Amino acid sequence: MAKPVHMRQMPQIAHVDVNCFYASAERAFDPSLEGRPLVVLSNNDGCAVTRSPEAKALGIATGEPWFKLAPRAKEWGLVAKSSNYELYGDISSRVMELLGRYSAWLEVYSIDEAFLGLKGTPDELLSLGRRMKEAVRRHVGVPVCVGIAPTKTLAKLCNKWAKNNPAFGGVCLWESVPADVRQGLMSRLPVDEIWGIAGRLTKRLNVLGIFTVQDLVRADPVMIRDKFSVVLMRTVLELRGTPCIPMEKSASAATS
């Protein structure tokens, strides 16, 4: 008699991030804002710090002064909200409490994003990611995307793909994306889209011919360590699937 086939259950990390957090929180509080271009303004209503997808489609940039936007607000149907940090803190707490029900390991990384430690087969992980996404939307009222991968850096990358590519439906599992598709996506993504890489570091990488995520994946980790830092070397290793950045906090949570 043939032995049953057991699917792999490899430890994975999920990165869950609320889309356009401040704007989404405002919509959770006032559903009439759904579908309308919306910006949330900085302290003293100086400039736009968060834009809804509809506002982004109008070409409104982060940091754009409100006095420049105000004359065309009526024409665009643009709604502006003053920052409400009490509301955002409450929404964040509710999101994190809900996510904690899905894993014994929850690391709250910022007000709108968290890492979770997960384990399961690819089908189980995708199903869990979709359940988390649906639960946060249903019970808290804000949209999230979920990236699941063997490392934190790859989980953040998968989340970015889930957010920007409708084909993923808001949930991207690294292992479920064919290798050639992953390479294509990484070849088109600028290196400064990687977690922790920006500004002057990007320019220094460009000098070495490293312009895309795929370029960084192919770089020699030792060379990266010698020319930059151990931290950036860890990023390269994480992009190759080797966990180098551990979960920082354990939190007991109820089962979902």
From TrEMBL:
InterPro entries: DNA/RNA_pol_sf, DNA_polymerase-Y, Rev_trsase/Diguanyl_cyclase, UmuC. Residues 13-198 form the UmuC domain. Pfam families: IMS. CDD domains: PolY_Pol_V_umuC. It comes from the Bacteria. Poorly processive, error-prone DNA polymerase involved in untargeted mutagenesis. Copies undamaged DNA at stalled replication forks, which arise in vivo from mismatched or misaligned primer ends. These misaligned primers can be extended by PolIV. Exhibits no 3'-5' exonuclease (proofreading) activity. May be involved in translesional synthesis, in conjunction with the beta clamp from PolIII. Belongs to the DNA polymerase type-Y family. This is Nucleotidyltransferase/DNA polymerase involved in DNA repair.
